[in-house]
Amino acid sequence: MKLKWMLSTAIIMLICMVPAQVLAAAAENGDEAASSEPSGLLVVSLTILSIVTMIYLIYLEIRDNG
Question: Domain tally for the chain?
Fold first, then answer.
């Protein structure tokens, strides 16, 4: 149960952090910064979110078809 809460908290934080980072870049350097190359934080956040999602889906598949 504790692992479930930790994973859901991490996913919610990443989902909130990615758009906030893009909006902060747009506000800081004007609109052209938001459309320029993605920052390291954005790439790392999306990578972590993708990996966690794939692991969770594999876990659900194993649990259901176990």
Answer: 1
Average pLDDT score over the chain: 74
| Of the candidates 20, 50, 25, the residue with the CA atom closest to the CA atom of residue 39 | 25
Whole-angstrom Cα distance, residue 20 to residue 22? 5
Q: Is there a contact between 20 and 45 (Cβ–Cβ < 8 Å)?
A: no
Which structural domain range is residue 9 located in? Answer: 2-65
Instruction: Give CA 45 to chain center in angstroms.
Output: 5
Q: Which residues contact 41 (CB under 8 A, 6 or more apart)?
A: 17, 21
The model's pTM is 0.49
2/37 Cα distance (integer angstroms): 37
First-to-final CA distance of the chain: 19
Select the more confidently predicted residue: 29 or 48. 48
